[in-house]
Amino acid sequence: MISASMVKELREKTGAGMMDCKKALTETNGDMEKAIEYLREKGITKAAKKSSRIAAEGLVLAYVSEDGKLGSAVEVNSETDFVAQNAEFRSFVEALAKQVALKNPKDVDDLMNQEFIEETGKKVSEALVEKVAKIGENMNIRRFVRFETTDGLIEKYIHGDGKIAVLVNMKNADKELAKDICMQIAAARPEFLDEKSVPAERLEKEMEILKAQAINEGKPAAIAEKVVQGRIGKFYSEICLVDQEFVKNPDMKVSELLKSKGAEVVEFARIERGEGIEKKEENFAEEVMKQIK
């Protein structure tokens, strides 16, 4: 019988996950030393030791089915950009993007518990641990998006060889237009589709800021209100896709481009590698001196 205290002890000794520790103890009939060896052999202890390192590099890649009806984009982080160039790492991320599209996991935890699309009988979590142990860096499946359509077209765009991934779901669009919209999203960083999509609290906060700016410029409160109404359009043109200037023709708004083609953007996603992750700044001279000492 494998007790919770035994699992806890093995976890404290190795840093491996609870389920990995339980499996190791089960496989070794509760022998603690053999369980440690089991984890080492599987590379799990090595992987666990790396899990505390900050992983803010890596890749964002996307997958779209041949018929354009299924699409996904996934971000997998690594510690260094060097690993992001590793062919095996890239192949792993590509497989995960395909898995998300075809297997439709609810979230990252669900994805981790699915059977890996590339290896029968192995969970995604187990495949990840093996990659960490083999490649030698902490890796993290951070997030993904998935689109599905029955009457539209899904297109992808990867920028910077895996730095930015864009996924778009459109109606009445051909691949050329969909690709142009993807590149627009990559370059202009819209946060929302249109004005209706902007949350009320976000709009209220922006209007408060604009009003404060107008008052600080010396305008009376009544005039400041009118100034806000005049300036809020610029706010929309920065954060709303359809209100932005089309990057390939700044004389035209994206909404005008879509209208001229009779097309519509249903939804989009833009994932930038490491976005929002606080990176640890390393002083390599100090690191070398620490190693020498």
Give keywords:
alpha+beta; single chain; 3-stranded antiparallel sheet; elongated; 293 residues; 13 helices
Question: What's the short story on this structure?
Answer:
This protein is of the alpha+beta class.
How is the secondary structure organized here?
Layout: H1 4-14, H2 18-27, H3 32-42, H4 44-50, E1 59-64, E2 70-78, H5 81-84, H6 87-103, H7 108-113, H8 124-135, E3 139-148, E4 153-159, E5 164-171, H9 175-188, H10 200-216, H11 221-239, E6 245-246, E7 249-253, H12 254-261, E8 264-272, H13 284-292
Antiparallel strand pairs: 1-2, 2-3, 4-5, 5-8, 6-7
Account of the 3D structure:
This protein is an alpha+beta fold and 293 residues long. The chain has 13 helices and 8 strands. A 3-stranded antiparallel β-sheet has the order 1-2-3. Strands 4-5-8 form a 3-stranded antiparallel β-sheet. Helix 10 (200-216) packs across helix 11 (221-239).
Order of helices and strands: HHHHEEHHHHEEEHHHEEHEH
Major beta-sheet overview: 3 strands, antiparallel
Low-confidence stretches: none
Shape: elongated
How many helix segments? 13
Q: Cα distance, first to last residue? A: 46 Å
> How many whole angstroms does the radius of gyration measure?
24 Å
Mean pLDDT: 87
The computed structural class is alpha+beta
Strand order of the largest sheet: 1-2-3
Strand content: 15-25%
Proportion in helices? 40-55%
Total number of beta strands: 8
